[in-house]
């Protein structure tokens, strides 16, 4: 039997984020009291602890901040996908998000490379945000 792909656990708190991804929208919480936009998803503002939040549609754009190339399949599902990159992207709205840069060679990755989100429809409920390099 083929190994199963690790997928996010949906919760009451992160459901709006994943529902947005399903619609190919990168939705993030923004604090109505101090204006902070944050990720990963928490039920409280990570700056002022307010629970007075709204969900915004992020631009889906950002820059590559850090990255690695995986050469060992620590998780069985990834064993035949090696090598692959794991990237940290600084979104235009401020938060950082871990993802992958698709359709790129590792040697082409560099700091501050402009990227944009694309969505990989995994099943009926999960679409994973991935990123691709914006043409210069
Ligand atoms: Zn706040």
Q: What is this entry, summarized?
A:
Residues 55-120 form the ChsH2 C-terminal OB-fold domain. The chain is mainly β.
Task: Describe the model.
The protein has one helix spanning about 15-20; strands at about 25-30, 55, 60-70, 85-90, 95-100, 115-120, 125-135. It has one domain (about 15-135). The protein is globular, with a radius of gyration of 16 Å. It has about 140 residues and is mainly beta. The protein has a five-stranded antiparallel beta sheet. It has one helix and seven strands; from the N terminus they run αβββββββ. β4 and β5 form a beta hairpin. Zinc ion (ZN) binds next to loops. This is DUF35 domain-containing protein.
Shape: globular
Q: Count every helix, treating DSSP H or I runs of 4 or more residues as helices.
A: 1
Radius of gyration, Cα only, in angstroms? 16 Å
The sequence of SSEs as H and E is HEEEEEEE
- Main sheet: strands, sense, barrel: 5 strands, antiparallel
Question: Which stretches are low in confidence, meaning pLDDT under 50 for 5 or more residues running?
Answer: none
The domain tally reads 1
Residues in β-strands, percent = 25-35%
Average pLDDT value? 96
Protein name: DUF35 domain-containing protein
Domain ChsH2 rubredoxin-like zinc ribbon: 18-54
Pfam families: OB_ChsH2_C, zf-ChsH2
Domain ChsH2 C-terminal OB-fold: 55-120
Which key phrases capture this entry?
globular, five-stranded antiparallel β-sheet, 136 residues, mainly beta, 1 helix, two-stranded antiparallel ribbon, binds zinc ion, 7 strands
């Amino acid at each position: 039997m083929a190994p199963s792909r690790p997928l996010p656990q949906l919760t009451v708190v992160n459901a709006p984020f994943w529902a947005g991804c399903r619609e190919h929208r990168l939705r993030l919480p923004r604090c109505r009291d101090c204006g902070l936009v944050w990720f990963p998803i928490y039920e409280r503002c990570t700056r002022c602890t307010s629970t007075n939040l709204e969900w915004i549609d992020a631009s889906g754009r950002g820059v590559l901040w850090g990255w690695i190339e995986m050469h060992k399949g620590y998780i069985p599902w990834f064993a035949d996908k090696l090598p692959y990159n794991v990237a940290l992207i600084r979104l235009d709205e401020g938060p950082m998000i871990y993802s992958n840069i698709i359709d790129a060679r590792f040697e082409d990755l560099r700091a501050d490379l402009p990227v944009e989100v694309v969505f990989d429809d995994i099943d009926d409920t999960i679409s994973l945000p991935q990123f691709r390099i914006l043409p210069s």
